[in-house]
Amino acid sequence: MKVTIKEIANAAGVSIATVSKVVNGKDHNITPATRQRVLETINELNYVPNRIASSMITKNTYTIGLVIPDITNPFFPEVARGVEDYANQAGYHVVLCNSDNNLKKESTYIYMLQEKMVDGIIITSSTSSVREESARNYMKIGIPIITVDRDMKDFKTQGKILVDNTKGAFEAVSYMIEKGYKKILHLSGSMNSTPSIQRFEGYKNALKYHNIDFDPDLYLEGTYDVEWGYEGIKKIMDKKIDFDSVFCGNDLIAIGAMKAIKELGFRIPEDIGIMGFDNIYIASVVTPSLSTVNQPNYKMGYKAAELLINFIKNPSKPDDEVVLETELIIRESTL
Q1: What is the CATH number of domain 165-294?
Q2: In this predicted structure, what is the pLDDT of residue 238?
Q3: How far is the C-alpha of 41 from the C-alpha of 198, rounded, in Å?
Q4: Model pTM?
Q5: Using an 8 Å Cβ cutoff, are 322 and 146 in contact?
Q6: CB count, 10 Å around CB of 313?
Q7: Fold of 5-49
Q8: For the ranges 150-154, 173-177, 327-331, which has the lowest average pLDDT?
Q9: pLDDT of residue 289
Q10: Contacts 24+ apart (CB under 8 A), 36-41
Q11: Range with the lowest mean pLDDT among 126-135, 178-187, 192-201?
């Protein structure tokens, strides 16, 4: 039978209010000896606090939701780890939801988290712009939302964690041009996402800066996965379009592209150079190792949790936007 807070109070020889203060971490005015006695009694009787009942009084569940678009993409587990590490330090639990890049599933998770009475939500949306109806519904939720890696214009959030994708892409493509690559194919992810749009802009800006005309034949839009990288190279080869290097929308696309290029008998980087984006852990162990743009994904998650929990504790805090820098990582896949 479940132990009650009243039984803990009786066993420890204190009031129910004292036990409640210890359980909820509001015991600053309780003597260390009394606090220790309560904790020992809780341990001896295996008491598990009823957080749902407690939340009805405190209006806090000390739980936050995290919605990500693709758990199979190695970029997002690091984001999740950053969120969880900060949340744990602050005494919060995290409910993880994977939307599979499906906007309907994403919306379902948002409503589920609201029903679970989470104190706030961190989200990397499957698109950069949600439908007008979804935007209105999200704003009705009444709990703070922080977005990560998406600059969503359609609804108000309490904070954004972004990276300078345009600058990162510009630096990567500029490096390739300076190393002698001139016909740079860009295999992009879906243009429904802000990072894809910004990386494409950085790619075009670098070409323009180095007096190279943008060639629409050297741009293909797809998805952020290995399969698209492989398929994209096969498509461009079938069209017999000449290129000497590939700037990929992320590292998964780059790994797929490398596989196709090697199967076709070309050398990397001597015949065709490859540049990725993200710096997932696989990038350093593939052969040849992948040049890429590092995103501080752990820090993105950590800062998102910090912003959210600070806002939960202080709702009058003004909205915040954090833009983190990228870093060019040069390995063996480029000259």
Answers
A1: 3.40.50.2300
A2: 96
A3: 57
A4: 0.83
A5: no
A6: 11
A7: 434 Repressor (Amino-terminal Domain) (1.10.260)
A8: 150-154
A9: 98
A10: 37/12, 37/13, 38/8, 38/12, 38/14, 40/12, 41/8, 41/11, 41/12
A11: 126-135
How many other C-beta atoms can be found within 10 angstroms of the C-beta atom of residue 186?
26
Residues belonging to the chain: 335
Q: What is the pLDDT of residues 112-135, one digit of tens each?
A: 998 888 999 999 987 655 544 455
Q: Is the pLDDT of residue 46 over 60?
A: yes
CATH topology of domain 60-163+297-327: Rossmann fold (3.40.50)
Non-local (6+) Cβ contacts of 316 within 8 A are none
User: How far apart, in Å, are the Cα atoms of 149 and each of 140, 160, 276, 312?
Assistant: 23, 8, 17, 21
Q: How many Å is the Cα radius of gyration of the chain?
A: 25
Give yes or no on whether 60-163+297-327 and 165-294 have one common fold: yes
Gap between the Cα atoms of 147 and 83, Å rounded:
12
The distance from CA 295 to its chain's CA centroid, rounded to whole angstroms, is 10
- The C-alpha atoms of residue 68 and residue 100 are separated, in whole angstroms, by 8
Least reliable range by pLDDT among 110-114, 149-153, 331-335: 149-153
Contacts of 294 (CB under 8 A, 6+ apart): 278, 279, 326, 327, 328, 329
Residue 128: the pLDDT is 55
Domain ranges of the chain: 5-49, 60-163+297-327, 165-294
